[in-house]
Amino acid sequence: MLNSLKLELEQRKANGLLRQRRLLDSPQAEHIVANQKPYLSFCSNDYLGLANRPELIAVMQKAAGDSGVGSGASNLITGHHRYHDTLEKQLASFVEMPAALLFSTGYMANIGVLGALTGRGDAIFADKLNHACLNDGGYFSYADFHRYPHNDVAALEKLLKASTAKHKLIAADAVFSMDGDIAPIPEYLALCEKYDAYLYLDDAHGFGVLGAHGQGSLNHFNIKSPRIIVMATLGKAAGVAGAFVAGEQVVIDYLIQKAKSYVYSTPAPPALSATLSASVHLIEQGDDLRANLFALIAYLKANLKLKKWKLLESDTAIQPLVIGGNEESLAVSEYLQAQGILVPAIRPPTVPAGTARLRISLSAAHTLDDVKQLVAAIHQAESVL
Description:
By secondary structure, the chain is an alpha/beta fold. It has helices spanning 2-14, 54-67, 75-79, 82-94, 106-117, 132-140, 153-162, 185-195, 217-220, 249-258, 260-263, 270-284, 287-303, 326-338, 368-384; strands at residues 31-34, 37-41, 99-103, 123-127, 144-148, 168-173, 197-202, 228-233, 243-247, 310-311, 318-324, 341-342, 345-346, 356-361. The radius of gyration is 21 Å and the shape is globular. The mean pLDDT is 97.
């Protein structure tokens, strides 16, 4: 087995697909120290620049003193702390849903929810560009798992119409992590109402950024429905860690009983929930942060003029620059790194073959000069590579 693992790693390296970690020696921010060198970073999902906010650090320090550094037991034994409970109620109110439930990660949330709500005899309908955890959740659920072309409402309707499943669940990213585009959520809800289905949305990249006061993708479309269940992560725009699922009270009550990744795991330390409560207040009051972020997005889109490479259409903080080949994408990323700018190269299987890209992530913590520096460096890279 060890020999086969070695051969596969060597083949991945030959194909330009070997992933490597950077060692961060600073807080997560727009300017970081990685591998002992300073960089201007466009790698982070810290869309509002909250990961290193002094007031959140102070809250976490105090909360750790009050509640300790670990939860110590599963939620259904003695691990469910007052800080957890307060945050769940706050999140439900913020996204205007009846109830919410915390999970330690978004991956655990998606696997737990899909596995709990669907099973044999049911059907899940998933966008082909969904995040890997939605796919894994679908596979592990034992439900029939159908995939439709990206954002293709007509193809999805054909699948729903042909299905005889007892329960039908559409599962989709709200904002797609590698393309930055937004799912046609109103059209999906209309299909749910027409075919007696439910909609499960992964709003990891919309929460905190889209909608009034950062309430997320549902608010962005001004949509409410008991047929919708939404998940959002808390380690991106919220700047901390974890995830939550929100929906009807009966859904949350059922997940507490049946979601295995909730029932059989120890919750995140209570101090994180206390910190997240403060973070949600900052998100709610952060219209100026979002205004700056969207101004930077508009500047990048208006000023990045390319001949060989293509900036995909996106109105979100995720701005994908499609290069094409794996080796060429790595070369562009390495060229920018030599200029002191970090932008990650994303390659298959994360994105389809032939669409390797740089994933530019903008943050409200960036300045206009930061983005100007990035634009100039990409123009220069295209002229020499």
